[in-house]
Design goal:
This protein is of the alpha/beta class. The protein has five helices and five strands; from the N terminus they run βαβαβαβαβα. β1, α1 and β2 form a beta-alpha-beta unit.
Length: about 160
């Protein structure tokens, strides 16, 4: 499948995608001669004419704008969206994790889809409570953790 990355897809995310998603052709708008700056209204039609099958974007507002929705529908291309609401390195990490984990599954679904599909990749929750499990071994020692008395936390 040929996937076009919208201009709003970060370059480091593009590098991660091509590292993890190897059985598909992944191109970034910025790398295609004359494509940079192409507006969404023209991008979908142009991508369809050039043989792309899907566009990956993080533009969550596209589906609320009538002319863009019409352009997406007219193109027949699959649209894959991911969220990127967190700035900085943490936001990039969330985007890379979400897209690299979800995109291969989405492309498998699209490979057998009988018609155009709109997919939203679910994000990873970056809050500490959902991303980390922190254990204090002095109060909750894991199995075989040495206790101050020199014994192990595992009963004999």
């Amino acid at each position: 499948m040929r996937v076009l990355l919208d201009e709003n897809v970060a370059r480091p995310l593009h590098r991660a995608i091509i590292t993890f998603v190897t059985h598909h052709e992944i191109a970034h708008v910025i790398d295609l001669a004359g494509w940079s700056g192409t507006g969404d209204l023209d991008l979908y039609d142009r991508a369809a004419q050039e043989g792309f099958h899907a566009i990956l974007t993080n533009d969550s507002r596209q589906l609320s704008r009538q002319l863009e929705v019409e352009a997406i529908a007219r193109s027949g291309l699959h649209r894959i969206q991911y969220s990127h609401k967190i700035n900085g390195l943490q936001g990039l990490g969330v985007a890379i994790g979400s897209v690299c984990a979800g995109l291969p599954i989405a492309l498998d679904v699209l490979a057998t889809a009988p018609s155009q599909r709109l997919i939203k990749l679910k994000g990873i929750d970056p809050t500490p409570g959902s991303r980390l499990e922190v254990t204090d071994p002095s109060t909750a020692p894991p199995k075989f953790w040495p206790l101050p008395s020199g014994r192990s936390s595992t009963p004999a």
